[in-house]
Amino acid sequence: MSMNRLVTLEQFIVDQQSIHKEATGAFSRIFRALELGAKMVNRDVRKAGLVDILGEMASVNVQGEVQKKLDVIADDTFTRVLSRCGEVCTIISEEQDDAYFVPGCEDKEYIVSMDPLDGSSNIDVNASIGTIFSIYRRTNTAVPPSVEDCLQPGINQLAAGYFLYGTSTMLIYTTGNGVNGFTLDDSLQEFCLSHENICIPENGKIFSVNEGNLSDFPPGVVSYISWCKEKDKSTNRPYSARYIGSLIADVHRNMLRGGIFLYPATENKPDGKLRLMYECNTMAFLIEQAGGMAHTGKQRVMEVMPTELHQRVPLYIGSTHMVEQVLGLLETEGNF
Length: 336
Description:
The chain has helices at residues 9-19, 26-46, 69-84, 147-150, 219-229, 247-257, 276-289, 320-333; strands spanning 56-60, 66-68, 88-93, 100-101, 110-118, 129-137, 159-165, 169-174, 179-185, 190-195, 206-208, 240-241, 260-263, 293-295, 315-318. It is α+β, with helices and mostly antiparallel strands. It has two domains: 9-195, Fructose-1,6-Bisphosphatase, subunit A, domain 1 (Fructose-1,6-Bisphosphatase, Chain A, domain 1, 2-Layer Sandwich), CATH 3.30.540.10; 206-333, D-Maltodextrin-Binding Protein, domain 2 (3-Layer(aba) Sandwich), CATH 3.40.190.80.
């Protein structure tokens, strides 16, 4: 990228902030903290094979999953940088049982929700992983922060995004005015604008799902997957199956190329597996801002009213036409 076209994340945020005369700079400080945290985690990810930070800890998170060492490192890193930025009163994390109320920031209005390291099952095999985050405003600053402040539907998100630690390190984010992507220039240690105004194609040729669970899926999903695999020249089928096992990586690819990611309910897990507050709401906000669609099979993801921090929901997300087709089959052929 030539220097006369280079736009850093900080410059982009400053330019956007200048449009909103009521802005106080609080968002800028939160994003600088997130950017710093991502650079620190990226550093640890890049050297993971050289030091003792791969593998599992002895601890188990609230979901009953054995925590990877990098999970714990990422959670601690983002919690520390967000606590120090002075603008965040509460942090909720997939890796923590309860909300963390930042000491000395009881009068601040922002809440950050995060999955510090999505796709941690990929850590030890050097596949793509990432950090998911979203920002909310608490409704009442006259009283101390509480868990109830955090239980807001996704439509209340002020900003959402993710850092992807892959062949390059990227930030994709929205503040409700489109989606933009930034790539980390290692020589400058700056995130630079690389994907402006991302728009997901209305249709695609990729479906992302763990077919190992096919026998447990709702009839409507089974029919859709079968349809995707049939030969039909008029619709360019069969479609390509692409599944990394990291929500960030799968949704990122589909957002750029067109496709659908499915994590359905099953008979044993009618609420699905993915977390509403830490994963689904963030991705739904991004995909909708890019022109796509995100649904639970029963309602729009961002309209789900959370009742607990670690609530789970099914997820159908991606190109609008593809999601609508799945929803139609769920309605006519069956859902759990």
